[in-house]
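User: Please predict structures.

Assistant: First:
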Amino acid sequence: MLGRFLLGLCLLGVATATAAEVRSELPVREVDLSNGTRRYVVDVQIDGKQVEAGLDTGSTGLRVLPRALSPDAGSVGGQEVSYFYTSGTRFHGRAIRVPVSIGGIPGDIRLMRIDRLDCTPEQPRCPAARIDPTRFGIQGDGLPGEGFAAILGIGLKPDAVQNPLEQLGVRRWIVELPTPGSNIAGRLILNPGEAEIAGYKRVSLIGDGNLLPGCLVAASPHSSICGDALLDTGAPGIRIVTDHTIAPWPQGQAAEIAVGGDARLTIPIQIGRRDQASAMFVVSRPGADPPRISFGIAPYFRWSVLYDASARQIGLRGR
């Protein structure tokens, strides 16, 4: 009897491992806020309920407003956790374990239930301060009734609430956003096959585990800003944080985004074009050396992006 029980456990382990290796694909939809900001969304199952979640490669963790959770999950205790975003919005709540399915891959994972919102001291007029909490939506820019009930943070920076894909056993995924002006959905591919990951040029992650070496380079007059760079599906526009004052480059300035070391990969842009998500913002912050560069969503319009959590690499391939 004991032998049969142990055999059952072994078979269960094999079944679970196999499920985690199944290739799956989720549509990625563009949602435009009333102020024109582009957001990207996927559908996930949380405690048996379908929920729209903002897709965010710049953050880590599945974080969910109580309205998207069952009454039991809305009241259960758990470790106190907090998390903030570059917008200044800060979440406070509990890390709880809930059944989740992403792309048909199921598991009990640790997510954050958001119990309270506020702003960081540096940004007291953040989106959370501009709206009644009952009408707040994640990635909604503080617009009443806009945004989502959850955010799917699939970045690779370590956090108390881990990357939900990794928690489900997914070790590689590909992000392809919808291209501007297209009615065709993008794709989030989980567990892509060997043939699908061929041809990607790999760049090793640095710093906090979500960063790459990168530069924003102006064509004429030649100028460059280099530092620790981030590709971020949750951030429209190019944001530079540096310890000294830099004037944003003029609208229409020819430039390129460059990622990687000596054999870096580049794509051309013009500063300030909506179809390229290339508006440029500069923030001066003491101690920000090297500069921090968020390229936002612009790279995804020209590159298919592979995330390899096991190798701690990001791969880029032209679309």
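Second:
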Amino acid sequence: MVEKIFFQSSMPRAGSTLLQNVMAQNPDIYATPTSGICDVLLNLKAHFNNSLEFKAQDLDLMEAGKKGFYKEGMFGFYNNITDRKYIIDKCRGWSVTYDFVNYFYPDPKVIIMVRDLRAIVSSLEKKFRQNQHLENGIQNWTEMKGTTVDKRVDLYLNEAPPLNAPIDIIYDIILRKIAQKCLFIKFEDFTTDPESQMKRIYNYVEIPYYKHDFDNVQQFTYENDVFYRPFGEHFVRGKIEPVPDDYLSVLGKHNCDYITQKYAWYYKVFNYKI
């Protein structure tokens, strides 16, 4: 029987899949791949609020019913697919919908993996280069779109998923003070000293600590990356170790400077060196 549900709402290319598979080592934790539960709940909210049948009934009763439907629907879903006590559901929308979740599931615990934006953009660019055999929608020579590294950097940051929306989400939850209720884990800290970061997570979600094996991380989650091309890569390497920064050689110093200047707030909040 599921006792608690936690949420992971991380930046792309920041170790979210790795964290899920480390968490899944704990026999009491069911860690999801990228989940659609958040979208389901948001669609339910829209239907409840727009349906004439619900609006025409006693509003207080309907409010109580909606809260129960959201919460019990979420718990019911997981109670039918696992017998583990704790769930960590991964979706980038959980942090920005914090107030909605808090409405029916008070004091939700949201974990957010972040990473130096230069490293994230560099990782996206490397995925683009490695998948030239795929139609990616990034580079279009007829429209002269995404035809240079400089243009693609701008595209990743401002137009192309999966990075532009997560940046806005982080910015928004900081301004709304939601970030103060979440736990941020820096990818660089996690890959350098995973045990200390895992202890922070267990302390935050308030469950007993489990001794994890960081030298032998097995794949528990499954995602078909055909649906996430060209940037999706949801597999884990067996051992957690630091990842060298290569953004200068991949992007060039001028693009790295552009990123740090454009997102100076991000570098200040998360104390990344420029």
